[in-house]
Amino acid sequence: VQNLLQLFNIPQIGYSATSRDLSAKNYYKYFLRVVPSDFYQAKVMIDLFTSLNWTYVSVIYTD
Questions:
Q1: Residue 8 lies in a domain
Q2: What are the tens digits of pLDDT across the range 24-63?
Q3: 19: containing domain
Q4: Counting CB atoms within 10 angstroms of each CB, which of 27, 41, 42, 55 has the fewest?
Q5: HEC readout, the chain
Q6: Whole-prediction pTM value?
Q7: What backbone phi and psi angles, to 5 degrees, belong to 14?
Q8: How many domains are contained in the chain?
Q9: Is the keyword Transmembrane helix assigned to this protein (predicted)?
């Protein structure tokens, strides 16, 4: 969608798009997001685990 919208200088706001690729401003000039990319979310989690001296983390989820 962004490829079409940027032809007309129309901004697009992504409320749940977390792909790091969308941060490339040279390709997505009019794309704005309201959530951080997956890269930054992972970085914060790793920083938190490191600061708490955790060496093992388990993930629990339901499908």
A1: yes
A2: 888 888 999 899 889 999 999 999 999 999 999 999 999 8
A3: 2-37
A4: 55
A5: CHHHHHHHCCCEEECCCCCHHHHCCCCCCCEEECCCCHHHHHHHHHHHHHHCCCCCCCCCCCC
A6: 0.62
A7: -95, 115
A8: 1
A9: yes
Q: How far apart are CA 25 and CA 49, in angstroms?
A: 31
In a domain, 25, yes or no: yes
The CB density around residue 28, as the number of other CB atoms within 10 Å, is: 19
Place of tokens 């060496």: 55
- Residue 40 CB-half CA count within 13 A: 8
Tokens 């706001």, residue?
A: 13
Beta bridge partners of 13: 32
Tokens of 59: 């993930």
Tokens at residue 60, please? Answer: 């629990």
Asked if residue 49 belongs to a domain, the reply is: no
